[in-house]
């Protein structure tokens, strides 16, 4: 998938997230606090001296909340898409699980109870392979692989790959 050029805010958000999450940023923050503490006696620990650190930390915290939330939203969306791809590509997985993050809390609770029941049933078994068979997983894999190898996009990609190997 080709990468699109990111807009200015997205580039800034990525840069700021990486920068503020670094060791250098942490050391700088400690340095600022040390400078502030050292200047306390110079300003007689006045209200203005205290207001400087309070205002500074409030502004930084306020801005960081939005920056962190943007980064979290993007990461969450990417993780959901990756999980959806895994679910969609696995023959044994239920496609009903794709996009379940859009369900209500009540619907999610019902699904959770269903999987708790499955877990309880699995715990009653003496043999872990009884409910999660490796043989079944291998069989599913072979079925998917065999079916996948006959699809046009796979055959075309393999032909291109073989052609590029011959050219080298």
Automatic annotation (TrEMBL):
Record's keyword terms, sorted: Membrane, Transmembrane, Transmembrane helix
Pfam family, one: Iron_permease
Segments traversing the membrane: 12-37, 49-68
Highest taxon of the lineage: Bacteria
Record-given protein name: Low affinity iron permease family protein
Native source organism of the sequence: Mucilaginibacter calamicampi
Lineage of source species: Bacteria, Pseudomonadati, Bacteroidota, Sphingobacteriia, Sphingobacteriales
């Amino acid at each position: 998938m080709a990468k699109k050029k990111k807009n200015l805010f997205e580039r800034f958000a990525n840069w700021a997230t990486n920068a503020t999450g670094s060791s250098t940023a942490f050391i700088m923050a400690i340095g600022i606090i040390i400078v502030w503490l050292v200047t306390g006696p110079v300003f007689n620990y006045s209200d203005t001296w205290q207001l400087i650190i309070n205002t500074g930390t409030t502004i930084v915290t306020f801005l960081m909340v939005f920056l962190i939330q943007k980064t979290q939203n993007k990461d969450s969306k990417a993780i959901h898409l990756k999980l959806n791809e895994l679910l969609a590509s696995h023959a044994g997985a239920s496609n009903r699980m794709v996009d379940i993050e859009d369900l209500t809390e009540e619907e999610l609770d019902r699904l959770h109870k269903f999987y708790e029941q499955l877990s309880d049933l699995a715990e009653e078994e003496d043999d872990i392979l009884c409910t999660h068979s490796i043989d079944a997983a291998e069989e599913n894999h072979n079925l998917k692989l065999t079916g996948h190898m006959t699809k046009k996009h796979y055959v075309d990609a393999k032909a291109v790959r073989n052609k590029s190997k011959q050219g080298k």
